[in-house]
């Protein structure tokens, strides 16, 4: 029985496919690689992005978080040489439309993963609108080399001491929670110059990341995202919405869980993805990834030792073991 099919909405998860070849390829490579695989597919599954070299998976949206409203492709980005452990906060020092043009133009020499609209009174969408410009697996050009390769960059419309609106803070907080969940980035907020190479990761303003080695934090004298950005307030918003309501903190990586009914385990975290196996009630598993949101369901990536399989299951039928 398909107990996770309540509220099924195939349109919402259109385009998610399984990738058994990837699964098979890593079968002999041990748990660490399998976990890496699960994380990689989790990123793709929330979003409709292409995974690996598969073709023909055309989807309407290339955004990777529900918090992003629109995909607008930037020209400037590079292959990463490091994993993602930071989120760098910026302000544009210019109105939205001009900033969008700059961040997507090949001539500008810059880009960012995201641009958040701050004001209702400037040209463009309403305050709180989020554009995604670069996919997470590529390094955007929003800071200096080291920071670019280790981070996701979020630009926020801002200029002339006009402040940061609640709508902008709230959209950005949603976005940061999604990115942090996806890439296991600690919800630690840094408000002074930090040698990011020596820290476990977190959220930091542009002006506080190093230019290269940790001796210089110059940034051409810019103070982005300050003085108007309030990192303490932002931290409260990000952390507050992470509590209560069960959306995000129900389980931690490595938690032992048990199924509370017969439950489908899927290749990807959406209802129309292939069922890898059906876990009978009482099956033990370990949380390896998540949470992901799809079809109004919170999904967790699980390793099921009894079947030696990695699957995604609905949170609704999982309990701590
Ligand atoms: Zn900046």
Automatic annotation (TrEMBL):
Residues in N-acetylmuramoyl-L-alanine amidase domain copies: 74-226
Record keywords, A-Z: Cell wall biogenesis/degradation, Hydrolase
Biological process according to GO: cell wall organization; peptidoglycan catabolic process; peptidoglycan turnover
Gene3D superfamilies: Peptidoglycan recognition protein-like (3.40.80.10)
Cell wall biogenesis/degradation is among the record's keywords: yes
Keyword Signal: no
Catalytic reaction(s) noted: Hydrolyzes the link between N-acetylmuramoyl residues and L-amino acid residues in certain cell-wall glycopeptides
A Pfam family of this chain: Amidase_2
Disordered as annotated region, ranges: 1-31
Known EC number: 3.5.1.28
Origin: domain of life: Archaea
Comp. bias intervals (Basic and acidic residues): 16-31
SUPFAM superfamilies: N-acetylmuramoyl-L-alanine amidase-like
SMART domains reported for this sequence: Ami_2 (SM00644)
Sample GO molecular function, one term: N-acetylmuramoyl-L-alanine amidase activity
InterPro entries, per database record: Amidase/PGRP_sf, Amidase_domain, NAMLAA_amidase_2
Protein name (record): N-acetylmuramoyl-L-alanine amidase
Protein source organism: Natronorubrum tibetense GA33
């Amino acid at each position: 029985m398909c107990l996770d099919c309540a509220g099924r909405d195939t349109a919402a998860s259109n385009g998610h496919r399984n990738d058994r070849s990837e699964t098979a390829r890593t079968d002999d490579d041990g748990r660490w690689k399998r976990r890496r695989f699960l994380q990689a597919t989790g990123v793709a599954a929330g979003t409709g992005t292409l995974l690996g070299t598969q073709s023909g998976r055309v989807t309407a949206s290339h955004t990777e978080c529900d918090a992003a409203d629109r995909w607008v492709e930037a020209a400037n980005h590079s292959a990463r040489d490091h994993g993602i452990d930071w989120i760098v906060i910026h302000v544009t020092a210019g109105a939205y439309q001009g900033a969008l043009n700059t961040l997507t133009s090949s001539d500008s020499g810059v880009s960012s993963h995201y641009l958040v609209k701050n004001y209702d009174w400037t040209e463009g969408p309403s305050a709180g609108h989020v554009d995604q410009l670069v996919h997470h697996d590529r390094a955007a050009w929003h800071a200096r080399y080291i920071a670019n390769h280790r981070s996701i960059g979020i630009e926020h419309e801002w200029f002339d001491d006009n402040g940061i609106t609640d709508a902008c803070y709230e959209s950005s907080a949603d976005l940061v929670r999604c990115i942090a969940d996806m890439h296991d980035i600690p919800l630690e907020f840094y408000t002074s110059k930090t040698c990011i190479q020596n820290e476990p990761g977190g959220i930091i303003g542009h002006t506080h990341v190093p230019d290269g080695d940790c001796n210089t934090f110059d940034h051409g004298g810019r103070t982005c995202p300050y003085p108007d950005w309030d990192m303490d307030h932002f931290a409260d918003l990000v952390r507050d919405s992470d509590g209560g309501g069960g959306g995000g903190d129900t389980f931690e990586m490595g938690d032992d869980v048990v199924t509370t009914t017969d439950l489908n385990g899927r290749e990807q975290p959406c209802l129309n993805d292939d069922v890898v196996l059906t876990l009978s009630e009482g099956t033990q598993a370990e949380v390896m990834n998540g949470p992901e949101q799809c079809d109004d369901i919170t999904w967790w990536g699980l390793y099921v030792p009894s079947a030696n399989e990695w699957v995604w299951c609905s949170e609704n039928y999982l309990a701590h073991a």
